[in-house]
Structures are given as structure tokens and as C-alpha cells.
Amino acid sequence: MFAQMRCTVREAVVAAVVVVAAVALVAVVGSLSATTSAEQFTMLQRPSWAPPPWLFGPVWTVLYVLMAAAGWRAWCAGPGRARGQAMAWFAANLVLNAAWTPLFFALGQRTTALFEIVLLDVVVVVTTVLFWRRDRLAGALLLPYLAWSLYATALNGAIVALN
After folding, report:
1. Which region among 64-68, 76-80, 119-123, 145-149 has the lowest average model confidence (pLDDT)?
2. Burial 15-31 (b: 16+ CB within 10 A, else e)
3. Is-contact 113 103, C-beta < 8 A?
4. pLDDT grade, residue 17 (50/70/90)?
5. Which residues contact 91 (CB under 8 A, 6 or more apart)?
6. Residues whose CB falls within 8 Å of the CB of residue 27, separated by 6 or more in sequence, listed in order
């Protein structure tokens, strides 16, 4: 069911450092761009199924840990072209993830953020599939992130429609 990890100890440490640093950078960008997000979020017209503002921090903390673990497992599932492809999609996912919060909150470009998050959803699906092919646990670890991203897309769309 799970791929055998094919990293040396040194490769596993390098992979962990690189993946954790990349995910942490995305988290910092999001955090810095969201300094007034709770206030902005409460001022927006939101659907009845919108979560309370305090929930975003804990959810994203868990999701970032899962993303880092998935990235590490996908990297350590073995070398080759498949690893490069999976990690390139993972990197694209991180870039798009980092861009959404500044678009939505810091710049107030909610419609642009909606188009961007739809693209992010596609990239997350592709990344999940590629990770699953390398290591099923790596793919499974991205499923909560995919679910949250799809929920966030619906929420972004509802906020655009209501405001």
C-alpha cells in the first residue's frame, strides 16, 4: 500500500529541510498578508455556512503540517523523472497557495482570487494524483488540503456573489 522510502538518511534530511522550509515560507507569506483578515472577513457578507474567523489559523496549521509530510514522502519515494514532475507540481501548488491570501485580503482582489483558487484546485488535484502514484500515504495526506481548498473556493465564490 505504501511505497518503500528510498532516501538515504542524508537525502531524507535534505528533503525534510527543503520541504519544511518551502511550506513554512508559504505559511509566513499567508500570515503576513492576513494581519487584518479576521476583521475584513467579518465585514464581508458571507454565506451561512462560512466558518468563524478563528478557525482558519488552526485549520491551516494542520494542513501545512500535512502538506510538508506529503511533500517529504513524495520526495523520498525514489529518484527520477516522476519525482521531478511531482515536486514541480507541488512547488506550483505552494506558489499559488502563497498568492491567494495577498490577493484576497491584502489587495482586496476577491474576483481575481477566485480565478486563482480555481487554478490552485486543479494544481492540488494533479499534485495529489502524482503523489498518490509515488506513495499512497503522500497522496492521502493531501486529501484534507484538497477538501479545504474546494470549500474555500466555494466560499470565495459566495463572497464574490454576495459582495
Report:
1. 76-80
2. bbeebbebbeebbebbe
3. yes
4. very high
5. 22
6. 60, 64
Q: Phi, psi (5° rounding) for residue 4?
A: -75, 135
**Residue type at 65 in one-letter notation:** V
Q: Which amino acid is located at 119 in the chain?
A: L
Distance of CA 87 to the CA centre of its chain: 13
pLDDT at 111: 98
Round to the nearest angstrom and report the end-to-end CA distance of the chain. 46
- Residue 159 amino acid letter: I
DSSP sequence for 34-52: TTTHHHHHHHS---TTPPP
Angstrom distances, CA of residue 160 to CA of 10, 46, 60, 74, 81? 47, 9, 22, 35, 40
Q: What is the pTM of this model?
A: 0.92
Task: Report CA-CA distances (Å) from 11 to 70, 157, 158.
Answer: 16, 41, 44
C-alpha cell at 113: 482570487
Instruction: List, in order of start, the domains of the chain with CATH numbers.
Output: 9-162 (1.20.1260.100)
